[in-house]
Amino acid sequence: MNEWKVICRVDDIPVLGSRRVARDSGLDVAVFRNDQDEVFALLDRCPHKGGPLSQGIVFGTSVACPLHNWTIGLDSGCAKEPDEGCTPRFAVKVEGGLVSLNAAELAGHATDLTRPVAGPARRTVSCA
């Protein structure tokens, strides 16, 4: 049996925008709304360099990653050619204007994934 957790109202998500849903463990989930009032949910992590997809530009059924402009399909979580890679999707239900996510997925899906650390912060420094 699927249990659903109400996240927000559809109207709480800007048209061509998103909202982030914090989780107890793992990265946030980004919930998107396109100009046709379709709602999608992906892990808030681009498969390329881990950019926050929730800060990207939504167009049609895609979102452009704010870091390197990769196009990610909102319905699949996969990068559009020529790029490759996918970010995990989450089941979404919209009823009576309320947006819900599958509670089991929200609690356990892709909780092991992290955002890559790049640049100087990646170096280990010894203070001996």
Overview of the molecule:
A hairpin with a 5-residue loop joins strand 3 and strand 4 (39-43). The chain contains one helix and nine strands. It has a three-stranded antiparallel sheet with strand order 1-9-8. Strands 2-3-4 form a three-stranded antiparallel sheet, with no helix packed on it. Strands 5-6-7 form a three-stranded antiparallel sheet, with no helix packed on it. The termini are far apart. With 128 residues, the protein is mainly β. The model has no long low-confidence stretch (mean pLDDT 91). The chain has one domain (4-122): 3-layer Sandwich (Rieske Iron-sulfur Protein).
Brief write-up:
With 128 residues, the protein is mainly beta.
- Percentage of residues in DSSP E strands: 25-35%
Counting DSSP H or I runs of 4 or more residues, the number of helices is 1
CATH top level label: Mainly Beta
Strand order of the largest sheet: 1-9-8
Under CATH, the topology is which? Answer: Rieske Iron-sulfur Protein
Can you summarize the main beta sheet? Answer: 3 strands, antiparallel
Gap between N and C termini, in Å? 55 Å
Q: Which parts are unreliable, with pLDDT below 50 for 5 consecutive residues or more?
A: none
Give the class from helix and strand content and strand pairing. mainly beta
Silhouette: globular
Order of helices and strands: EEEEEEEEEH
SS elements, strand count: 9
Helical content (DSSP H or I, runs of 4+): under 10%
**CATH-scheme architecture:** 3-layer Sandwich
Overall structural domain count: 1
Mean pLDDT over the full residue set: 91
What's the name of the CATH homologous superfamily? Rieske [2Fe-2S] iron-sulphur domain
CA radius of gyration is: 16 Å
